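Issue 218. Parser rejects a valid record. Input:
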Amino acid sequence: MAFSCLLVAATAPYARPAAADAADAPRPPQTVVEPLVTGDPCMIQSRVRPHGQQGDFELVVLQGNDLVFYSHDNADVNYAWTRGPVITDRATGPGCLIESDYTTAGLPNLEVVVPESGRLVHYWRAGTGGPWHQGATFGSGISDDRPAIVQSDFQSDGHGHLEVLARQGDQLAAYWRDTSSWHPAATFASAVSGGPAMIQGGFGGDHKNFEVVVPVGGHLEHWWHDNSDVNKPWQPGGSFASGVTGSPSLIESGFGAGDRPGNFEVVVPVGDHLEHWWHDNSDVNKPWQPGGSFAPGVTGSPSLIESGFGAGDRPGNFEVVVPGPAAPEPPDDAQVAGGFSGNELQHWWHDNSDVNKPWQPGSQQIAYRGRSEKVCQLTGNVDSEQHTFTTNLTGLRANVQGTDLGYPVDDGSTLTLLFGDTHPAAIDDDKESGYDDAVATSQDTTPPSYASCLHLTYPIMKTFPTPTYRPAIVVNPSIYQGYFNVPSSGFVSGGHQYVIFWTNHCAGTGSSDPSHCEDGHQPGVNQYGNAVMTRYDPVLGLYKNLFQLNSRFTYTGALNTENIAAAPTPDPRGTYIWGVGLYRSTDPIMAYAPPGPVTTDLNWRYLHITPNGARSWVSDVKLASDMFTDSPQQDKCVGESSISWVAPLKSWLMLYNCAGKIQARLADSIAGPWSAPSTIFDPQADNGLCHFMHETQRDCDPVADGGWRGDPYAPYVLSRFTRADSADPYAADIDYVMSTWDPYQTVIMHTVITKGHPNN
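Output the parser choked on:
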C-alpha cells in the first residue's frame, strides 16, 4: 500500500521545519593542499638500465616540512615526472641524495641526508623501490642549508664510506659513515654563508681528493682535501664569482677528461638568475672561468648533473633543476597548509655538442600537488605509475588483474570491499560473462600509505564455477552479473551484510544483448536496468536475492548509521539508501530503512522537500525529492557516490563523480540541506592525467592498459581512517577509494577537507 503522510512513529525520521536551503546549508567544503617547492632540490641520474636505457632522474625537494622524492622515467623524455613518497615530514631544510654501492636484488640503493631541527638524519631506500627507511641521526648545530653527500673510495667491508658536509655555524663540519655508524671528522673554512657542494674528483693517488665549493659572503671558495692521508688538513683552493646569493652545485664533467681529470663545473645563483663557472683542470693553477648566465627568475639554489643524454664521443648534456617563480595559486580557493608559500621547480639543460649553445628550459612540470593525491594502487600486480609491485598483488593472489569500484561495507571489525567488473587477464576484453564481480576484506586499522596500502584478503567462493580462485560475488536466484552489471553499494544491519546490485543494464532499449549496451540511449528510457537487494549467506558463501528496488533507485549508495556514535541526534539511527533513476543523469533521492533485518522496502520512508525547504519523510516514493535543490540540469550527474560522517568537521560528507571530476558536499544533517559542490579532484588540474591516469592527447605516460583516457569515478570514503588533521584542528584527513578507468584499477586517494575556520 502506498500513501503520503508525515511519520510520527518512534522509529521514523524526524520532520525538519521549513528553512531557506541556501541560507541554511553549510559552506562548500574547502581542500587544504601542501605548498610547492620551499627549499633547494638535489638531483642525480641513476645508473644505466638493461638494454642501454637511460637511467632515470631522481631528486628530492622540500615542500613545507615534507622532503618529497620525485623521479623521471627516461625511457621517453616526454613522460611526466612521478611523485614518490614523502621521505620525512620533519625536515627543516633541503636534503641531498646519492645512489650507493649498497644493493637490493642487484639494484643500487638510494641514500639521503637531511637537516631536522639542528641535526642530520640519514634515510635510505632499497634499489627495488618501496618505502624509505630512517637510519641514524648525527651531528649538532647543523644549519638548515642543503648538506652534501658522496660515497668515497674509502671502504669498510667492501662498501665505500658515505661522506657528508654540512654548515655548522659559520664553518663546515664533515662526517663519514662506515658500515656500522657515523663519525665526526674535521671542521674547516670560516664565514660560510650557505650550503656546500662536494665531489670526490679525479685528482690524487690511491684515494682521490675531495673537492668542495662553498659560498662565503658574496663569492665562492674552493677547498680540497688530500686523501693520501685522512689526517691532513683541508686546503683552500682559491675564490671566484661575485654577487652569489645561494648555494652552489659542483660536478667534474667529461670536458677535458682523458689522461687527466675532467673540468670542474659549478652553477650558482646570483640574484635572480644562475651563473655557470668552470675550471680547466689541465692546470690546477688556471683561474676559474665564467661560462655564462641563464634561468632568469630563480628563487633558490640549483642542482647540476651531467646526464647520459647526448653522451658518446662528447660529454653528456648538463641538466639543472632549480626553484623558479612563485607557484600559481591552487584552484578553487584551496588553502595552502601551514601558511607556507612555494615556488615552481624548473628544469634547464645544455646541449654539450657545442659549448656555445644557449641553455634551454625544459618543458616538464617537476614538483606538483593536488587537492586529492594518490596514496597507493590497491589492485593489480604492478603500480602502473611507480613501476613497483603493489601491496596486494591481486593478479597473482586472486586472479584479479584489473577491476573497478570497491564500495566499502564496514561492520566495525571487518571492512568488505565490493568490486565491479573484474578482469582475470590482460585488460583487453569487454565481452565478459558470468560472475565477474569480486569481493575482498581487510582488517586494517592504520591508514594506508605509499609503502603499505590497504591490505586485502580474498575469500574463496566455493560456488564459483571455474577452477580459478577469483573471489566472485554470486547471487541466487541469479541476476545478470556480466559486463557493466555491478554491486553498487552495501551496508550491515541486524547482523547481516546487504549488497545492492545494479543489473539488467540496458533494459528497455531493445538491446538483445544487455552485456553490450553502450552509452547511447533513447531519451526518457531507463537504459540502465534496475537495482536488486541481496543478503549475504555465510554458510553458502553467496548473496540471496531478496527484492527489486523501485525504479528511482537504479544505482545506489547506502549507509547504516547505528554505529556512528557522534552523528547528529536529530538523524535517527538506521539505514539510509540514496539512489538515482538514470545513472549519471539525475540527482539522487533518499530513503530511510529502520534498524534490523531488511527484507522489504514496504517500511521505507522517503525524503520529501517542500519549495520553502521544509523536510519530512513520506511513504510514497513518488513524492521523494531530489536531495540537492541547487543543481541545474547539466549538473545532475550523480552515479557512484558515498556519504560518510566526518567527526572532526561535525558534518556529513558526500563524494561523487560528475563530468570527469570528483565533487564533495557537506551537510549538518544527512537529510540536508547539502552545501554547494566543490571539486576535490580534477584529473587535469590535480595531476592525475600523465601520472597515474592515462592521457590520450599527449605522449606523457606509460600507464595505459587499454588506450582510453583515464576517468575518475567511484569515490568511496574509507570512514575507519577519517581523522583530525594533525596540523589544523578545523580540517580532517580523508582516505577514499577511486577508480581510474585506464589503467583499469582502483587506487586509494587522500585529501584534507575543511569547513573553514570559525573566524573566516
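Fixed in the parser; the record now loads. Helices lie at 21-24, 394-398.
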